[in-house]
Amino acid sequence: MTRIIEFSGTVLTAPDTEHHGLWSVDGALTFRRPAAVPDLVLDGWVIPGLVDAHCHIGLGPGGDVPEQMAEEQAVTDRDAGTLLVRDAGAVHDTRWIQQRADLPRLIRSGRHLARTRRYLRGFAVEVEPEDLVEAVRKQARAGDGWVKLVGDWIDRDAGDLAASFPARTLKDAVAAAHDEGARVTAHCFAEDTLDDMLDAGIDCIEHATGLLPRHLPRFVEQGVPIVPTLINIATFPEIAAQAEAKFPRYAAHMRSLWERRAGRVLEAYEAGVTIYAGTDAGSVIKHGRIVDELQALHAAGLPAAAALDAGAWAARDWLGADVITDGASTDVLVCAEDPRRNLATLRDLKSVVLRGEVVR
C-alpha cells in the first residue's frame, strides 16, 4: 500500500463545502498533516468515489455470466469512477467481489423477484403471489439489506404493462422484508404500480417512469427516493418499435413514458423527491456509464451540483457509506476541474483512489 498520499487541491467534503488539506495514511483519510513526507502527491479537485445506485455486476443479456466477465464489469465501473455499487439484482453470486480490495464496494440485493413468466428469461426468481413473502424473506437473508421486486411488466393477455403482484401481497412482502431488516426497491414503469408500492411502504423506486403529479406529495411525505436510470429509459423507443406489431397498446404506452421522461424527473426534483443516480448497467446498458447518467439528470433540469450529489455525497449517506471525513476509507476521485460546474471533467479523471491505492 502507498502509505501516505497528499491531496494538494480543493477537497469537496459536501456539495457546498470546500476544504484544503487532506491526506491518506495507510488507506484512511485525515485532515492532519502527517509528520512523514508523503509518498505521492495528487493535485486536483477531490470528491468521494461515485455511486451507481442501480447496477447489475454479474448479469448479462442472457442472465448469469462467468466470473471473468463479472470482474471485467466491476473494473469498467471502477475505472469510470464508480467506487460504490448498489446491486439491483444479479444471477451470479458476487460475494467474492466483496473480498477484492481492487474492486468497487458492493451492496448486494440477491436475485430479482418477478411473477412467473412475466420478466426477462433467466434473470429472476419467478414466483406466484402466494409464494412471494417467503421468497422475499429468502432474498433478504441472502443479500446485504436490499430486496429487488419486479413491480410490473408486460401482461401479454392484456397487451400492456400490468402490476406483477396484488396490492395486498405487496404489503405482506414489504413487511416481511422489513421484519428481516432489509429494505425493498422495485422496478416500476407504469403509473398505477406506484400507488400500490407506496401503499405497501416501499423504500425506493427504480425507473419511476409512471410518476404523476398525484404521486409527488406521497413520495416526499414517505421519504421514498427514485433512481430514474435515464440512460436506460432512452431505450424505450426501440422497445416500442419491436413490440408495435403484436402489442400496439404497450408500444404506445412505452413511447408515452419515454416522451415525458425529462419533465417527470424535473417535477420530482422541484417537488422535493430525493433522486439518486443509477445506470441499470448489466444487460442492455454497458458498464462504466455513471457519468452519462449524471449528465442525463443535468440535462433533465437538475443543477450540475445536484446531479453530482445524486451520485456522490447524498447517495453515500443514503447507503451508509463513507464520504470524505476524518478516518474514512480513501475512496476518492481527483478531477482536473470543479465537477460541480463541469460534469464533463469526470470523463477524464486524473486519479481514482480506492482503499488508499491508486487504481487508475
Describe the structure.
Helix content is 32%, strand content 24%. Helix 2 packs parallel to helix 3. The protein has helices at residues 67-79, 129-142, 167-179, 191-200, 216-222, 230-233, 236-243, 248-259, 261-271, 290-299, 304-310, 313-319; strands spanning 4-14, 17-25, 28-30, 40-42, 45-48, 50-55, 82-87, 105-107, 112-115, 124-127, 146-150, 152-155, 160-163, 183-188, 204-207, 226-227, 332-335, 351-354, 357-358. The chain is globular, with a radius of gyration of 21 Å. Helix 5 (216-222) links the parallel strand 15 (204-207) and strand 16. The longest helix has 14 residues, at 129-142. The chain is an alpha/beta fold. The strands form 5 sheets. The protein has a 6-stranded parallel β-sheet.
Question: Which key features would you list for this structure?
Answer:
4-stranded mixed beta sheet, 19 strands, 6-stranded parallel beta sheet, about 25% strand, about 350 residues, alpha/beta
